[in-house]
């Protein structure tokens, strides 16, 4: 199955361009009579507009694909929320300096640009905070416009309604659409990274998990490869449906035996992989325990497994790429597993042998 990739590079660079455009608009207002008063107001506007240059560059080079799939790390959430807050506060600060309150009320339409970003990437509670905050600000600007006495109440109300619709209605539509798209992407990602028979991670899912959660530089990481012995003969003698039932039973026993102590994946037809935050000795003991737990003579089709174990120490990995570390650890465990097969099956071997 091929994953549909969201064009996140286009999205983030377009967002960065919009940030720079908003900064340019703010800078232009410093040369208008309706814009900020001379003095500290123009200094504030100039500083805010200048800040859009480093912020725009940062946004352009910050990957967004994990945020789209809702796999938000704490750091990812912090970045997304910080950007929305920065944009809202920056636009609000610039508009508050305007001499012409009606011009400031028109300027609140820029909140719609921030709303598009928030609707796509920000968690729901922060989208709600954005809507409430901008709605209050627009209402205040409308009241200040009315206080200037240049427009009647109906005219100000019409301007307020236009600003509220432009800032919030598009966001509401986009948020609803984006939520449905994200649900579809989540379902697709789940299908692409999990084994449909056992519900365990598949190899692609294990790689994805490693990208997010595996940090071999922080602690030793252990790997166990389990391969069912003579599984082909089970399929030949009892049929593939019986073989599937055996695989489901093995997956269930692995979950019950290991719980949250290991990440479990089905990486091949009759092959399973375990990843543990443990050294080689502990992983070897776990492999022995699993080998015993998977064999039950009372089963309709008793099975045995051959297990290979390996581990990567922190001194060995440094700041290594997590997926590369995963591949190396599994490769070593696979070598040890074949040694167990060659030694007569239903055994555990560790790498190096």
Automatic annotation (TrEMBL):
Give all residue intervals belonging to the GGDEF domain: 219-353
TM regions (residue ranges): 15-33, 45-66, 78-98, 104-120, 127-145, 157-174
- Any single GO CC term annotated in Swiss-Prot or TrEMBL for this entry: plasma membrane
Q: Which CDD domains match?
A: GGDEF
User: Which PROSITE patterns does the UniProt entry name for this protein?
Assistant: GGDEF
User: Taxonomically, which superkingdom?
Assistant: Bacteria
Write out the entry's keywords from A to Z: Membrane, Transmembrane, Transmembrane helix
The molecular function terms in GO held by this entry are:
diguanylate cyclase activity
Biological process, per Gene Ontology: cell adhesion involved in single-species biofilm formation; negative regulation of bacterial-type flagellum-dependent cell motility
- As recorded in UniProt, coiled-coil segments are none
- Record protein name field: GGDEF domain-containing protein
Species assigned in the record: Mycolicibacterium sediminis
